[in-house]
Write a structure and sequence with these properties.
The structure holds two protein chains of two kinds. By secondary structure, chain A is an alpha/beta fold. Chain A is about 30% helix and about 30% strand. Chain A starts with a strand and ends with a strand. Helices cover about 55% and strands about 15% of the residues of chain B. The longest helix of chain B has about 40 residues, at about 25-60. Classes of the chains: A alpha/beta, B alpha+beta.
Chain lengths: ~230, ~400
């Protein structure tokens, strides 16, 4: 089932006293449920802009973008926010854990924007998620008391706690040493596989990119496939 | 509905977490608000005490609302002979419990250092309640006092000092010099006002007229008694007309009667303390404004440090309206807490005996309870200030660009 479909997507920004700057040009991308996609590119190649679009944080200037066959461009800002909260999980390079909150409170944070069972049982759901990433004994620990690997595991638990169908990992191992990075990527793969979520990884690291089934390169705003799914 | 409840609860939880984590910052920023709320509530609360003091002072001199004054005389200036019976009949007919004759005279009292004329007011026992007379020592006239062989007197503190402050339990007596010297017993002492320097005393009207016959010559200083009644305000106008009619009818064409209302409230339209309240409110409003400006200032500065956090929350699905509401709620929750602290502090200040005595200056017998409206006003002000102070940071927060904020 197609989760995300970008077709001829461009993104330009208006500059003062200068012609519009094209950041993404003619991007075509299809992400299916359970897919593994990696996107590599140099700094300034448009990775962040693409991440904004995939994470429903921005709208394309032209082209079409469908999320589960629904046009994202036609959604209101609030509807897009709610869809993002429900269906998209972010894993950041710098973990971005909320300071001063325990691991459990960090993982509970996305559930504050849910409703129904997810909202009212957020403590139990978050606890189970932390246990799932091996941090059941660190529920009450503050981020500055956790190692880099543990912090990223908390971040992973937080991104997956609402059961998203799309996980966007932005340089997920960029702040970790090689060995810890491998462990964290194993965990992301494992949890994503368990939940059936698609994983789109944006990275500089060829080794991390190589773990995906399909590889893309973003160069000057143009997305090119470099490795397709084996037939 | 479920969504609305979870959004509301979620926003409050977020706000509370934020306050808990940044408690030092929050406490510092809220000191100004708490002080301002405390000030506004204290001022309103003290205003109520001061108002009560002024009210009671007015009631002591002019009687409580509504006090009616009745004076009657014959056309030749003499005292109507049947006035006692007319008076008694009127009180019974209209079932008036609080009424008193008032006879102003001067009696010569023999002190150790000589005989001194003392201003003496002859009254009936209800006069004490009608004029809020509080005693420093002893008791006001009771219903048994008319039966005393030696008339009871209630003297002022100056008088008492001049007697050497005798213990009232020893039944101190004073000689009232006249055609026949009379021995009176001091049963009570009332405080003197700051400007009172001369002895004065109250005596029951019957006892007073017994030792000093009423002077009927209108050219003399002390004349016939006037009559005073304390009646419900809502029937006071009808009673003025009725008494005027009844007494005039009883006196006939040979006499005249005047009944009018003379208490403080009879001369004022609307709230007599409105100007005081407005002045106090304006000062308190300025104090609150300063507190709010401090709060906005600190909120804006700290918001810069929270841009990343807001971006993270947005990435997890927080809508712009949710972020707006959460930031606003932080301010509101914080100021409400500060408001509660401020109101509690204000209650402690206003109800402390030291402050009560200072404000009342000994003029209040019925201390008003802490005004609920002052507490509500304080909390409402705190909430409004929180909402206004949170508005600007909340507007800034929703303009945060998510990915830029995350990478901030």
């Amino acid at each position: 089932m197609t989760l995300l479909h970008l077709s001829a997507v461009t993104r330009t920004v208006q500059l003062i006293d200068a012609p519009p700057l094209t950041i993404l040009s003619g991007v075509d991308l299809v992400v299916d449920a359970g897919d593994r996609v990696s996107i590599v590119g140099r700094s300034g190649s448009g990775k962040t802009t693409l991440l904004n679009l995939l994470g429903l944080l921005d709208n394309p200037t032209s082209g079409t973008m469908l999320f589960e066959d629904r046009s994202v461009q036609s959604l209101t800002s609030g509807a897009r926010d709610r869809l993002r909260g429900r269906e998209v999980g972010f894993i950041f390079q710098q973990f971005n854990l909320l300071p001063g909150r325990t691991a459990l409170e960090n993982v509970m944070t996305p559930l504050l924007y849910a409703d129904g069972r997810q909202f009212w049982q957020r403590a139990r759901i978050a606890t189970e998620m932390l246990e799932r990433v091996g941090l059941g004994d660190r529920l009450g620990s503050l981020p500055d008391r956790l190692s880099g690997g543990e912090q990223q595991r908390v971040a992973i638990a937080r991104s997956l706690v609402r059961g998203p169908r799309l996980i966007l990992a932005d340089e997920p191992t960029g702040a970790l040493d090689l060995e810890t990075g491998e462990t964290v990527m194993d965990l992301i793969d494992e949890v994503a596989t368990e939940s059936g979520a698609a994983l789109v990884t944006i990275t500089h690291d060829p080794a991390i990119a190589a773990r995906a089934a399909r590889h893309f390169r973003l160069d000057h705003g143009v997305l090119q496939i470099t490795k397709a799914v084996p037939a | 509905m479920t969504h609305v409840i979870s959004t509301l609860v979620g926003s409050i939880i977020e706000a509370w977490q934020e306050l808990r984590i940044h408690k030092t910052r929050v406490m510092l920023s809220l000191i100004g608000v708490a002080v301002a709320v405390c000030a506004i509530t204290t001022v309103v609360g003290l205003g109520a005490v001061a108002q009560q003091a002024t009210l009671e002072q007015s009631e002591r001199s002019g009687g409580r609302a509504a006090s009616l004054y009745l004076s009657a005389s014959m056309n030749d200036g003499s005292t109507p002979a049947g006035m006692p019976e007319i008076w008694r009949t009127a009180l019974e007919r209209y079932q008036i419990d609080y009424a008193s004759r008032v006879v102003n005279t001067s009696q010569t009292v023999q002190f150790a250092d000589g005989a001194v004329p003392v201003q003496t007011i002859g009254v009936d026992p209800p006069y004490g309640t009608m004029h809020r007379i509080t005693l420093a020592e002893g008791t006001w006239f009771s219903d048994d006092d008319p039966a005393r062989l030696a008339p009871a007197v209630v003297i002022n503190a100056v008088f008492w000092d001049r007697l050497g402050r005798p213990d009232l339990r020893t039944y101190p007596t004073i000689p009232v010099v006249g055609e026949h010297t009379t021995t009176a017993v001091v049963t009570g002492v009332y405080p003197s006002l700051s400007w009172e320097t001369e002895p004065a005393m109250y005596m029951l009207a019957d006892a007073l007229t017994a030792i000093t016959p009423v002077v009927t010559d209108p050219n003399l200083q002390f004349g016939p008694p006037s009559y005073e009644l304390w009646v419900p305000v809502d029937v006071s106008e009808q009673l003025v007309s009725a008494l005027q009619r009844d007494v005039q009818g009883a006196l006939g064409s040979g006499g005249s009667v005047q009944v009018n209302r003379q208490d403080y409230a009879a001369y004022q339209d609307g709230d007599p303390y409105l100007s005081l309240k407005l002045t106090v409110g304006a000062i308190a409003g300025l104090v609150l404004l300063l507190g709010a400006l401090g709060l906005v200032n600190i909120a804006l500065v700290t918001l810069k440090q929270r841009i990343r956090e807001i971006g993270i929350r947005r990435s997890f699905g927080a809508t712009a309206s949710r972020v707006f509401f959460a930031v606003l709620m932080e301010s509101v929750v914080a100021t409400v807490v500060a408001g509660v602290v401020g109101v509690i502090a204000a209650v402690l200040i206003v109800k402390s005996p030291l402050v009560e005595n200072f404000i009342s200056q000994g003029q209040v017998t019925d201390f008003p309870p802490f005004p609920v409206e002052a507490a509500i006003l304080g909390l409402v002000c705190a909430t409004v200030v929180g909402a206004l102070a949170g508005l600007i940071p909340a507007l800034v927060a929703v303009r945060v660009k998510v990915i830029d904020a995350i990478r901030y």
